Amino acid sequence: LDGGSLDNLLQRLPGCVSRDLIDQLTVEFCYLNSKASRKKLVRALFSVPRTSLELLPYYSRMIATLSSCMKDVPTMLLPMLEEEFNFLINKK
Known about the structure:
This protein is mainly alpha-helical. Helix content is 73%, strand content 0%. The protein has one domain.
C-alpha cells in the first residue's frame, strides 16, 4: 500500500463518528503501519479541528487501541498535548 492510501485514510478520520467506523479505520491503519505513517497519524489526530470536539472520544479510542501494539503512538502524541495544554494555561 502506498502513501496515497494513508492520505485517503487520514482524510476519512473526521467522518469517523461511531465506534464501528473508528474501529474499522484503526484496522485499516494497521495494514499501513510504518514509523512514517504513525508520525503522520499522530499529527492528524493532534490537529483535530477545535470546532469538532465530538471527535475526541473516537480519536482517543483509536489511540488506546493502537497503543497496545504501537507503543510510540501515545508516546509521540502526549508531549504535543502537554505542550499545547501548558501554552493555553500560561496564555491567561
